[in-house]
Amino acid sequence: MMLQTNLNFKRQLLDYLNTERLLPKMHSAYGAFHSTKTAVLKVMADILLALDYDDIAFLILLYLSSAFNTIDHATLCTEISYGPGGSLLG
After folding, report:
1. What does the domain layout of the chain look like in residue ranges?
2. How far is 47 from 56, CA to CA, in rounded Å?
3. Do residues 17 and 30 touch, judged by C-beta distance below 8 A?
């Protein structure tokens, strides 16, 4: 039951983000033909290109897993199911 709920949630969220064009063009997660490998290759290519042009390149990595543990999941689910403007997404 929980797996089906998670899949419905993911599908609903992605449909909303795609419809409203809220995902960046270079978004690497949750999309067809995108993976962490795609993201790493893009970052490496950008860094190498910058270095080829004698630019300075910085890479800052953040570990955000614990930040999501502070979210009230009931509130999050309510906001997502009704959307930020109060309209029902489903």
Report:
1. 2-81
2. 9
3. no
- The 3-state secondary structure of the chain reads CHHHHHHHHHHHHHHHHHHCCCCCCCCCCCCCCCCHHHHHHHHHHHHHHHHHCCCCCCCCCCCCHHHHCCCCHHHHHHHHHHCCCCCCCC
Tens place of pLDDT per residue across the chain (90 aa): 555 667 788 888 888 888 888 877 766 666 666 677 878 888 899 999 999 999 999 888 877 777 667 777 777 777 776 655 555 554
pTM value is 0.43
